[in-house]
């Protein structure tokens, strides 16, 4: 009651203090309204944010059946509508007066609000299944806590002098691509990140973002700002402390306005000035390589372009233990003035491993920048010394050392590596929840990761189709359109088909799209396909239009007769037009018979059937609290924002060991894993927090 009184009288500071001290956020007044409804009605943004940060339910309905989003829509408060969508508000479009008329007749602000809502309906499936993640925390001075570790974002808290609230989110680029103005030859290296802060915030915050994978040796990274201000260039370093390869990117973000950004990559060859003097070049992209140019090799000065394509990953596309067939990276040498050497140039390249048979090494050469398999030539004069291969070249081209014994496979892998084409398993999986609702995921997985990726989805309750997957070859950063055929219906309110981009570096989180289906399988079975199509351009020649009149223009004839001897005859160029078409890559059949699934086949417990995250099962949570003292259970509940009244009630009844069962909802979601881990760290139980995170990664219960 006290909290609602403060909100009614706009005493925001007092309200935030009460929330921070653990007041009951579930209290309902005579109108069926909670603190969330009151904060939204009064437009108290910071108070509303604090309620969400401390676990208030933003989807609860008042006595009139209105949610917080309904109220914000009626107020036409775009700021609050955005916040509610950011925090995962559920959508019920059929109830909104805004959609009762012609959408095109709406004013500009209403159209912006409507677009936000249409986007939100698609985002909810992504939030539920992990391709959009967010965290909201109150940051306090001198707290040695990594608040956003669940998003793989670390932060420097040294400049925090007072408490404030901060929201951090990351999402796959497909959800933001229409807002991103990247160059045509740039590709997404990271997800899209968003940072918003409220209250007595500092001017800026330093973030370390851990991104899956690392840039290729010939790639440069840059920060691409969508909104906001970034105070200095990004700093990039490899993370050496993890088994999985990661790149740590340091970003300084201004908190004076909302910020949204991503990291993009671009292939940037190295350029070297060359004269007729001798020169020894060690490219930065592969420092152990050497290009030795003798004196008098070139008649005149020019610039040598060097590009190196990494090949090691292509050795293990199908199996991590197969013998490699590509022994070095591929090096591409080009003089920008198109000159060729008058003397042999000696190339020295480091080998990936010194285990190969020296008699098995040959050199593939091609004068094409991206050769096809039939455009390679073979050379065999190679010097081998330790972990280096040396050979002379008389023509600047593309060179790579590979296996003579497995020549056909070597040529295929070399071609794919230079084109950055990878073998992919495409698959679709469906989950039927206990309430009958259906979810569909569609994923591209690298060939050697497909089995483990499907296992992760199976552990979350999804089932494979009768055709478990289909193989195809895709280019890195290839964007494909996804079309659902037959009677498969999603709850999306958008008319355009969704897209999905292949980023092979996302080996941990995967490349996937998720959908909520609205089919009622009790009435009719699912029948249809998932069609994945790649986009390509078609060049058309346009026929020139005939003159409207068939008569001859007298002035034109006179001009022609006077000038035809002095004007060269020419045929006008045929006008060209560019069109976009889609080519089918693969189609995946969707089966209806897989929906009759037993619970023990989808990784759920019989007595906890709505929980598909093993580490959050009741048995797991009981193991965690069994290792804690009563006081530690009390502290953990406080850090997890369990209301003070509920903690006191459990303590009175001698049931504080059940604190996590009170905290966890009936249908837990992934974000709670990270909240639990952070709560354990706050009570100095780092080992237990690590056990929670490892159990989540391995899809198992908390260890006994």
UniProtKB/TrEMBL annotation:
UniProt KW keywords: ANK repeat, Repeat
Entry-linked InterPro entries: Ankyrin_rpt, Ankyrin_rpt-contain_sf, DEATH-like_dom_sf, Death_dom
Positions annotated as ANK repeat: 31-63, 64-96
Superkingdom assignment: Eukaryota
Record flagged with keyword Disulfide bond: no
Keyword Ion transport belongs to the record: no
Pfam families, A to Z: Ank_2, Death
Death domain segment(s): 635-696
Biological process annotations from GO: signal transduction
Name of protein: ANK
Native source species: Mytilus coruscus
Lineage, top ranks: Eukaryota, Metazoa, Spiralia, Lophotrochozoa, Mollusca
